[in-house]
Each structure stands twice: as C-alpha cells, then as structure tokens.
Amino acid sequence: MLLIPCPWCGDRDETEFGYGGQAHVPYPEAPETLTDAEWAEYLFVRDNPEGPFTEQWVHTAGCRRWFTLVRDTTCNDILAVHRTGTTNPVHP
Amino acid sequence: MTETPANPHRLARGGRIDRSASLSFTFDGTRYHGHRGDTLASALLASGVRTVAPSIYRRRARGIVAAGVEEPNALVQLDGPCQEPMLPATTVELFDGLSARSLSGKGRLDPREDTALYDKKYVHCDVLVIGGGPAGLAAALAAGRSGARVILVDEQNELGGSLLSSRAERIDHAPASDWVASARDELTALPEVRLLTRATAVGVHDHGLVLVAERRTDHLGSTPLPGVSRQRLWHVRARQTVLATGAHERPLVFADNDRPGVMLAHAVRTYVNRYAVLPGRRAVVVTTNDSAYATAIDLVAAGVQVPVLVDARPEPPPALVAQVRAAGVEVRTGSAVVGTDGDPSLTAAWIAPLDRRGGAADATAVPCDLLAVSGGWNPVLHLFGQAQGTLRYDESLAAFVPERRPKGLVTAGAANGTCHLAGCLDEGTAAGTEAAARAGFTDDAPPARPRAQDAPPAPARALWTIPGGAGEPPTWHTHFVDLQRDATVADIHRAIGAGMRSVEHIKRYTTIGTGQDQGKTGAVVAIGAIAEALGVGSPGEVGTTTFRPPYTPVSFALLAGRDRGHLNDPVRVTPIHDWHVAHGAAFEDVGQWKRPWYYPRPDETMEAAVLRECRAAREAVAVMDASTLGKIDIQGPDAGEFLNRLYTNAFAKLKVGSCRYGVLCKADGMVFDDGVVMRLAPDRYLATTTTSGAAAVLEWMEMWLQTEWPDLRVHCTSVTEQWATVAVVGPKSRAVLAHLAPDLDLSAEAFAFMDFRETRLADGVPARIARVSFSGELAFEINVASWHGRAVWDAVMAAGAAYDITPYGTETMHVLRAEKGFIIVGQDTDGTVTPEDLGMGWVVSKRKEFVGKRSYRRPDTARPDRKHLVGLLPDDPTELLPEGAQLVADGVPTTTESGPVPMLGHVTSSYRSAVLGHTFALALVKDGRNRLGQSLQVPLVGRTVRATVTEPVFYDKEGTRRDG
Amino acid sequence: MSHELPEHPDWLWRNPDPKPSYDVVVVGAGGHGLATAYYLAKNHGITNVAVLERGWLAGGNMARNTTIIRSNYLWDESAALYEHALKLWEVLPEELEYDFLFSQRGVLNLAHTLQDVREGVRRVHANRLGGVDAEWLSTEDVKKFCPIVNTSSDARYPVLGATLQPRAGIAKHDHVAWALARKADAYGVDLIQGCEVTGFLRDGDRVVGVETTRGRINAGKVALAAAGHTSTLAARVGLRLPIQSHPLQALVSELLEPVHPCVVMSNHVHVYVSQAHKGELVMGAGIDAYPSYTRRGSVQIIEAQMAAALELFPLFGRAHVIRTWGGVVDVSPDASPVVGLTPVENLLVNCGWGTGGFKATPAAGWVYAHTIATGQPHPLNAPFGLERFTTGALIDEHGAAAVAH
C-alpha cells in the first residue's frame, strides 16, 4: 500500500486515491488534423519506463483533486509531487 | 515445588513456567499435563513425548527439532469449535483443555463455521522496533527516551527474546532477566511507547508499512471470546523501523540427521532454561561455532549427562574448551557427527574426525538420546529482504548478513550477524538512537547504555554437508536438508545433474524451502550444499532465494478482517428501502446498491409480477424508486462549455428549466455512460448517470476539468445521496401528480416533455419535478431532498391508491425501455459500441468537437457494417430468447464440425411484453440495419430457433403516449 | 522429494555459451519464449536458435502465475487462440514426454449479478458455437460441481450461476517450462541464462542482432518474449508499444487435504482459486492500478482478495497464507495480446498478455514461431497485430463495462 503525498491533504494511504496514468499527455489541439496513427498514439501509447514516471492520481476519497507524482517504478519511491498545472514540487 | 509425576522430563525448579497452574491437554488422543507458560512442544517434551507424525512423503519418524517458528516437523491440527491446521507445536501456547493432533505436513480444513472475530488496526509511529530481545529492547529504550512514538512488537508471549533461554547471562552486573523486567517497566511507563507481545511482524511493504499479526486470545483457549477479536492485523506505518529480529540456528546435514532426538542446540537450551524441560538424559553436542558450548554447560547444570561436545573447528577458542572440560565434558575438535542409530528415536551418534576438506573417517558411536546440533546461525532477514534490502555472504559467520539496507530500516543484533550480548545491546542502542534521530527525535541526555561483558565469538566453520555412510553425495538419501519437504542432498544433486544451476530452479525441483516453514532451517543449508555440489567457492555465489511475505503463516481470516458477509462491500440503500423490504420486493445488486427488482405478490411468479407491473405502467400508473441514479451538480460560468466538450451532444444552449438526454464516450469513441442533464440555471446543470457508473463519471469529469481544462470555471459535486427520486409513470400519472403538486400546471402545454419545474408538494416539501420518461409513457420524476424521500413515496402511494398505483422494479423498467428501444449502458453496450452502432447518430453532434470524436474516423470504427443495435422478433411469439444468445445467418450450419460457426452478434436484452402480447429482443448484429426483415438462426442448447430482424422500437414508434 | 507426484526427468538441458550468430534469437526464456523455440524447431525445422534469459529460465511470470488454463474467452478471435492452446495442452504431456500435471478439472466463472449472468450466458453461447466447451450452471449446479462454494442467498453478492468449461483446469507451471525447455534443448536450441539483452545491433532500419551482457550475438530475426519488460526492450530501438507493466499478485496456503475439486473464478468479487496437486490453495486477484516493476503489489489487494475468497469459501478461514508474490504483467489497452511483426524489420513482438499468458503458452509459441518462420502472421494471431490500435479493430476482453441502470 503506497503512502501518497496529496499536495493538498498530506500523506494518505493509496486506497483513498484513483490512478490516472501518465501525466502531461494533453488532448490534441486539433484531433481532426491527426492521422490515424497519430490519434492511436494519443489514445493508446504511453511511456512505460523502468525508473521515474510522471503520473496522475486523484484523491478520490479526500479532496478529489488531481495531481502529479513522479514515482520510480523500480522501487515505488515517490520523487516529487506537483499540484496540477504547476511545476514546482510540493512538500505537504 | 516438586516435579509432577506427569512430567518425567520436567526439572524440579527453574524455568519461566507457572507451576501453580497445571493444565491438562490431549495430543493424538492421549492426555498429558503441562503448565501455563509451556508451549505444546515443551509440554510434550516434559511428558517424554518427542516423536511426532511421520514425514510427509517418506514416512520417516520425526521429532521436535526447534523451539520456535522455524520448527519443520511438529505441525499440529488444533482442535476446537473450528479446527486450525498446520500450527507448529513450538508456537502453540498451552491452555487447559487443549487438544491437538500431529500432522504429516498436511492439514485439514474444518467445514464448521469459525465464529471468531478478526480485526485490524491502522496506526502510525516514528519508530517501529521488531523483536523484543536484547537488541530490540535496547533500541526501544533509546528511541522511547527521545520522545518518539515507538511501537515494539515481539512474537513471544513475553519480552526478552534470546534472554528467555539464557541462564547465566548478565546485563549491567545483574541477571539478564532483571534487566528485561526493568526495561519492560520503563517502556510501559513511557507515554508514547506501545508494547505488543504475541505479535509477529509478517510483512514489510511499500513506504514504511509493516503488517503485524497479533494473537490476542489463542493462549486462552480455542473457544472464541464474545466481543473480543481472536487475532488482530496491525497496519503500522512507521517512519523508521529497527529490525532486531534475531537469528535462527542452522541444523547440520549428515546421514540420518532426521531422527527424533536430533535437536537444534539453542532449542535444547531454550527447553532446559525457559521451560525447565530435559529433552534427553544423555546428550551429545555437535557444533561449528561457539554458541553450543553454552548448551553443553546448561545441560550439565541441569543434570544431563554430556559425554562429549564435538566441534568441527580444529582449534576452537581455548577458554570455551576449558570451561566445558571443567564441567566434565570431553571436547573433540575437528570432528563432526556422521550418522545416528535409533529405533527409530536416537540411541547413538557416530562421531568422526573431519579431514581438511570435510571428509570423515574412523567413526565411533556415542550412546545418547539427544543430539544437540548447531550448524551456525542465520540472521533473520526475511523482513529485510522483503523491503528490498540486499544480502552478502559473510565468511567468518558463514552466514548471509545485510549488505545494502533499504530506506527507513536499521538492523541490530543477531539480525545483523552480531552474536554476542554486549554487541547486541550496543547495536540496539545505536539503532534506536539513529532511528529516532532520523524521525526527528534526539535525546540530549547521553544514553544510558545497557552493557554486558562478553566478547564476539570466534569464527564459525562453514560445514554444509558431512560425509558419512557409503557412497558419494548424489546417493545421500538420508542427509536431509529440508525436513518438512523430505528433501535431501541426493535431491539437490539430482537437480544439478539435470542441468539446473540456479538456486531458484533447484528449490523448485527439490521443493526445498516451499513448506509451511518456508525453509527457515533448510534454505541456507541448501544453498551451502548447492555451492558444494556446483563446486563454486562460496554460498555467496549461489545467492539466496527471494524473501516474500508473510514471515510466518497468516490465516486467511485475519487478512480478511471484518470485511466479511454484508461488510464485504458497503451496501447502499435509498431512503425508501425499508418500504421496499416491507412490501416484499426482490432485490437486484447494481453496483453497491440494492435496487427493487420486482414486487411479487404472494404466490406470484417473477414473470407474472413483471407483466402486471408493466401493464400498470402502460395502462394506469406505476411508481419506481429511481434514487440510485447518479447525480452530479455542475456549476460555474463555463459549465455549458464543459458539458459540450464531454458529451457527444450539445448542452451549452439548453434552456434553463429543460432537460436533455446525453451520451458520454471515452476518447476511443465507445459509449461509457448516459443520462439526462437538467439545466438548473445559466451556470448550473444537474447531470444524472447510470447507477453504477456515477463514481466513474464524476472522476472522469474531474480529470478533464482539472488536468486538461483548468481554465474552465466549473465545479462538480456528487449529489446522488442528497436527492431521492420517485418516478411516477403511466397515463394516470398526471392525475396522481395533481394531488401531490397542486401548485403546478401539469398540462402538456404548460409543462412540456423534457421540462422540469421547481415546486412545493402538497405537504410543503420542496420538489423538482421533471417530465422525463424512460418508458415512453407520460411520466413525472419527483426529486426531493433525500430525507423527504420516504414521506414523498408514501404520499405518492396514497395519492395513487385511487388509480391502483403499482410499484415496479428494475425488471419492469428494463422491459418498458426495451419496448421503446432505449438502451441500457452495460447491457446493450459492452465498451465496444459507438452511438452510431446504437442507431443514435442523432446524439452525436456534427458541429462541435467533443472528447473522442476523432475516433469515429478510424477505419474500423467508420465501417458501415459494424454491429448495429436492432430489434428481434422470435418466430414463436412465446419464445423468450436468452440474453446472450448468439445469432447466425440463415443457412449457415450451426455445428462446429467444420470449425467455429460464424456469428453475427448476440441478444442484449430480451423480454416478454404485456403490451405487445409476445416476446421481443434487442440485439447487436453485424450490419444489422441492412438486415431488417432477415430471418436469423438463434442456436440454443440442443435446438435452434429463429427470429426476424426489426427496427429496435417496438411500441409507440410515433411517441404519442409521452404527453398522456 | 514428492513421492505422490511424478518424478522429474534426470536430464533437462545443457548450459551452453552463446554462439556468435543464430538464425533466430528469442529474448526471454519464459513459457512463451521456450514454446516459441520448441515450435520453431518442431514445426519449422529452425533449430539454430538461442533463447536469451537475463535471469533464470522461466523465472518471470511463468514462475508466478496461478496456473489456470481455459479458453472460454468472449470474442471469437480470443477464443480461437486460447482454444488452440487448450488443444495443444491436451497433447503436450505426451508429446513432451513430461507429466506436468495438466488436470482438466473444470473452471467455474461465477456470476453474482444479473449483469454477470448476461455476460456469462453470452460467453457460453459464443463459446459453444466457437467450438469451445461451455455450460451454464444454475446455482444448484454450481453447488453440485463445487460443494464448498457458498451458495447462500444472503451472501453479500450471492452466486446466481456460473459458466463451466469442463476441459479447463490447471498445470504445474514450472514443469511446463522445463518440459518445453528440455525438448527445445534436445532439438539443439541454446538456452542461455544469465544473459541480458542490453541493446540491438542495427543495419539501417533492420535489426541484425543483440548486445548482451555476454557479448554481441548476431541474429537473422530477433523475437521479443519478455512480458512486462518488452516496452523497455522495444524502446531501445525507438519502438513505443501500447503496453503498461503492472504488478499482479498471487499467493499460496500451506498443504491441505484435498477439499477443492475445480477452479473457481469470480470477476465480481475479484478472486480465483484452485488447489494444486500437492495440496496448497493457489489464489490470485486483480492487478494493481499503477505500473510498477517491483514484483510486489499493494497489500490491500491481497486483503480484499482474502475477504472475497472467504465470501465464496467460508471454510478457508483458518487456512494460512504462507507466501505471497508479485509478477510484472504487460497489459494492453484492450486486454488482448500483441503478437506479430513490428515496423522494425526483423524485430517481432509477443507481449500484452496481461493476466492470460500462462494459459496461452503453447498457442503463443505456435503462432509466434509461425510468424517468425514465415514472415507472416498465422491466421490465429493475425487479428492481434499492432495495426489494430490504429484501425480501431480492438479485441476488447475487458468484457462488459459492468454498468447498468
């Protein structure tokens, strides 16, 4: 059970959160201009690194805010946490 | 105090047992006696019983080997109101009336109900100390004195660890037991320190989480105590953890090393000193290291004959040798035990000198009934390994010790490979101080360090297998490595001979280390034996297998905790639930909700009830509790734009006071949820969702809002449980509503379809009434604050009584909507269906962009011949097609002789219709809209029926009924 | 050694050093890699093959799964592939001359809601027409088939029925791998353990070999079969795959006298359980939500799984968990595998099996070997190419969205 540092509420058990996949994958500006392959890349292809991974979580059973974690997928160490839309790490 | 005749092997005095409490127990059908403070194993040994059930596969006689969780042989089935299988007798505390049976490595599940309670606690601390021996106690004292919140857990019934087995050890110039008592008292007095005994740390998980299994009542008896949990699983979230988990002694591997009477030397010491039990009368001690000398001396002190101590080391420490010799024990150095005699319990040990390479010759027999063996010590690093700590092999200890320690973890004492008391105390103090400091607590006063006077032991000799008997290692079929798995040196050689090199392969081939004990005595021995067999320099090159939770077995029931029965998943009910129960509703589980499925009258079948409910809705008036539908309040100046971006159809221009049906698709264009959205104000909407989709839709909305469009000024809030919704349906619904909502003009002109009105009901309750219909009939949905839900329901029932108002459940709802061709997401869709597939292209805006729109242009998604939602009319109007039945084109064989039958699609919904007078169905059919009028085969089990493809709207195609 | 169970062979495999060059290098000596090598040799006569394994042979998910074998998948394409596997399972013990304890004891998939019932009945009908044995059991029939299942109507989620695939069952995973490895080795395939692929040798757009911790190895074709680590490998040639690697946990109990006659799965309460030949209960549950390569998962998944297990099997309450573990499963967006060619010439992928890899082992090897040998997908894996993510022709085995009014 991960201990996740919600940037608004502080450390909470993983069971309070929902997982949202890789962060910073914006919805394409003009989807209609994309090729099928480019659209497929947006829909289905995400990074899957062994190491630091920037991902989105939502504090479902808390403040309901989405935020961004940088987590090392080889050990689950949490390296940074950001409020959505900011790039400065937060240490609640 | 005198020895009881029932305990012929009990010492007259000493031990940590309570001789005032004589406990009677039964083992394999025979009655024995013991004392409070005994384990089942110590009481058996005191009674002269040392043979337990034969081994699992080879049926060899076996005895008690150890005194703790590492015991490989003495597994028992504990009787009681619900039996428990596979408990080591060495860990079962004796209670009066205990009854157990010996097991040959395999237990039995008791089918009777376990009425005991199991619960969980979730706690945080600054420093968790695991192990209450000298190192752990010193660590807890150091950390506790700093003011840190400390939890100390220990698996035994009392603190002290290895000191409970000691006799002459002294700390701070007093008997060690005095120090244990004073440490316990001081820790108890510290306000931020919690002590847990009978509590085993079983798993270390991510981010400092440690699971601790506490046995709260097992020592009191097998009958559950009312209101008291039998076991408790602690989830301890620790900033820092000190592992003071001690060490397990290793056995020696020699011919016939599995005889009853062969015991671990430290276990012998434990039985003598802690339990005042003599496991034998004439003992030979065999060792590779210093520790067993104390066993020899304590045995002599207890009156046991110890003719000889055998040390594999050619030159053991002279002081130890002198001490033992002074006690009258012969010391043979550079020697080992090479075999045993017995009938089958031990009668003699064969001792022989070892040559430099470990070979043996010229064995002599020494009569004995107890062989105390020590093959060295394994630091207990299971938890350390679970936490991803790495190990290295230490040549002088002949053991694996910590190498890279994981974050937040400190090791101390024997777990660190430190085997002398003074070192354990020092390391414990240092570890406790360090852990507290890392957690932000420092003690300004210089630590009062407990001290002992002993010195580190001399290096051990690594002796993994001992030759003996005839033949080479591949034939050593009685050199047991893993007693519980009946696995031998010969088995290891066979695995290697087959081509295996990895310890993981050899483990799996031989099954070594896979028993209930997870190889606590055998695993490292096996690694040594593998290193020898492969001819590699050191066990370090072989490496260990992976440590996995739990450290000791944990019952399923404890892991499940209180999440049993109706607490397995929360039950959600509406404010009107009690009425449904009182009126005999059958319920359907939808998500976590209990929804009325139908309301059978006495002796009425489901089919009859549903037809009756349907008829009422179509011909008169019927009522349904629709409170479970998800409801999301969406507010803010950009709310309309927000909905426009998410729903396939447009909402920005929806009039205040109006409702619109909307569909949500995922970015892949597939239908995800649907529902009616009301516009409450220019900047406020209320979106309804499916019952079980509510949470996912809210999370989905929040994700887009917060991560993709943070510039939109919108807030979403779940209001599902704030509202109760009563749907009044049918041609007489307007009449019923007229009684309920006297202030409202209910005429079709004044209150149009898909409008809603705010009003006060006759009894003054504020209500929002919507003219939405999931049945095609004139219908009103009354929304009120949930605490008014039941009263409003009652008012509806009263007002409707004159019209014979009929409550209906989800099944009738399904029939009514299917007659109109309305879909149910999840039933008529399965995550692979687009709005276009459903014939709902009208709900997909051509003008605006929305999430997933691009997906419809993909080649497969744009195919005109995808599966379409169509109607099906069975040729036989009484034939109810099973939902899920597959459809096959006319003329295609429906047997599989020549391969899979090509299928066109399946029946998604199928009902008997009261209003149509026949059965009907909805189906997803390949190219279905171009098959209208086609006859399809519906192969069922043992027969095939036929049905004709139709439009999916069966009733009131013109929509004339919705205005009443 | 176990004397109730069949003895292992005295000989399994050589431990050769890598040669400088092979016709085919398979990366990953798990079940799929080994089956691929076996069928390359047996079906296509290609024996100049190396299977490279960074750890120990079959030490990844092959060593960590719950050994369930079934073919009762929803979609025709999936059912065809898994049914091909099941037919191979039925002949492999004899063909490989290795009794790997394949036991066709039947698999029940329980239904707990009306939605589950619809999904189950749909699957049964589709399976029967697809040539997959399948039956729908009423609650009473479930009780007869597996008497220890709790069929009480006041369970939190009562059992409303189940699908049964009688030919489905379990096999001993390690032994399957060893059986395949032994025969592959006998055909001359080099099984090279402790040999990690660290990069690819390129000639223009083509892959011509691999860099490993034991040196460069040239290869006519390189076939990835590395499960959760496939993305990391593919990334080394700039290939991005629609794969996420998640922890999947499982556990075993101590040995118990036989009590559980079949395999029971429940998607609704999230548990699957069988009792292995030796006597231990073997259980699994769902994947962890987040990707991770740690080979361990979150403990609340285990706790929820035990609670679910006790709902179905109250008599398991006093059994004990003796070991839990995690694997790294490669999950694709539609929960179906990716088996086929890639945009990189001479590089093939077999991945995305998620939680279904073990049961597919022989079929995965069969069709992958075909694709490697002929340069074209076998008809059974043709629908499972990477192209489907572009065209939208997914094979969505997530099943029904489980949403209902």
From TrEMBL, chain A:
Pfam families: SoxD (PF04267)
Highest taxon listed in the record's lineage: Bacteria
Gene3D superfamilies: Folate-binding superfamily
GO MF annotation list: sarcosine oxidase activity
One GO term of the biological process aspect: tetrahydrofolate metabolic process
Protein name: Sarcosine oxidase subunit delta
Annotated source species: Streptomyces sioyaensis
TrEMBL record, chain B:
Ranges where the SoxA A3 domain occurs: 478-562
Cofactor entry: NAD(+)
InterPro entries for this protein: 2Fe-2S-bd_N, BFD-like_2Fe2S-bd_dom_sf, FAD/NAD-bd_sf, FAD/NAD-binding_dom, GcvT/YgfZ/DmdA, GcvT/YgfZ_C, GcvT_C, GCVT_N
Cell compartment(s), UniProt: Cytoplasm
GO CC annotations, alphabetized: cytoplasm
Stated name of the protein: Sarcosine oxidase subunit alpha
GO BP annotation list: tetrahydrofolate metabolic process
Keyword terms: Cytoplasm, NAD, Nucleotide-binding, Oxidoreductase
All copies of domain GCVT N-terminal, residue ranges: 576-848
NCBIfam families for this protein: soxA
GO MF assignments: nucleotide binding; sarcosine oxidase activity
Positions of the Aminomethyltransferase C-terminal domain: 867-956
Free-text cofactor note: Binds 1 NAD(+) per subunit.
Enzyme class, UniProt record, top EC level: oxidoreductase
UniProt similarity note: Belongs to the GcvT family.
A Pfam family per the record: GCV_T
Domain FAD/NAD(P)-binding: 126-386
EC id: 1.5.3.24
